Structures are given as C-alpha cells and as structure tokens.
Amino acid sequence: MAARTVLQEADIARALTRIAHEILESNRGADGIVLLGIPTRGVTLAERLGQLISDIAETHIPVGSLDVTLFRDDLAQHPTRSPKRTEIPDGGIDGRTVVLVDDVLFSGRSIRAALDALGSIGRPAAVRLAILVDRGHRELPIRPDFVGKNIPSSRQERVNVRLTELDGIDGVTIEA
Asked: Fewest CB atoms within 10 Å of the CB: 15, 127, 138, 165?
C-alpha cells in the first residue's frame, strides 16, 4: 500500500500557527514560557513554534531540546539508540511553564520519559504538551494540551512526519 498524505506544508503551517496562539492564550501571554523539543523532529517544531510565538507576542521565547533516550522504558528492546543533546535555555526551567513539543503522540511512552527527564533537570511551575499529530493508541494516561491534527490510524500503520529543515519537504503521510 502506498503512503497516503494527510498533511501538506500549508496544513502544518496552519496547525503550528493555531498551536502558537493556543499556547499564548492558555498561558495568558508569553511570560515564563519555555519550549523544549523532543529530538529529532520535536526540536524543529519547537523552534518553529518559538519563532511564531515570538512574532505574535513580540518577545523572545526560549527554545531548547530534551533528550529522553536514557529515560525510556524500552532500552532493553532498542539498546542501539544514541542519545541526542539536551539543551536547556538560559534561565532554566524552575518556576516556568515548560511546553514539551513532539511530532507524533502514540503510546505516550516518550512523553512519560520526557517527564522523568524534566524532573531530573528542575521543577517547572507547569508542564504542557504540544503535538503536531495525535494518532491515538495511548498506553499511558497522557493527553496533549495542544494538537495540530488528530489522525486516527491502526497500530500497524506508520505515521511519517517530514520537515523541510531535516527532510527537504514538509508533510505527514501514513503508510501500512
């Protein structure tokens, strides 16, 4: 079965713009927001969201990355995973609203690992979750605060997010 395109470049741009506005509305402004992307594509999405929020609120929004590799509960099944960099913006996360950003939410296990990783770094005032694609099939009680698109899929299907900065094109496809 061929890959089916579910989001194109304009759809992703619209979704991110909406999420940026929702983050600002939920936080009642830009004060205290820190965006942390989960590698790999979550970091790129966090950078895009940071720029959008900065443009809307006319202030700088700190953006960093949070590697969750060593906090995952499936390292025994995938021991060759190589850790990425964790970069916490100046000012840290203590007492701030941290928005975790990732491309696809599936079982919730990566986000659980992200919460553990975050707890090892500091104590935010609040943690929110922004996801480009929510495909369902949660195994843990984790729910995103901001969603670009809900895309029902079967467990056998694969959701592929492609971003210009990494892949040369923006798009989301589903394949069997």
From this structure: 165
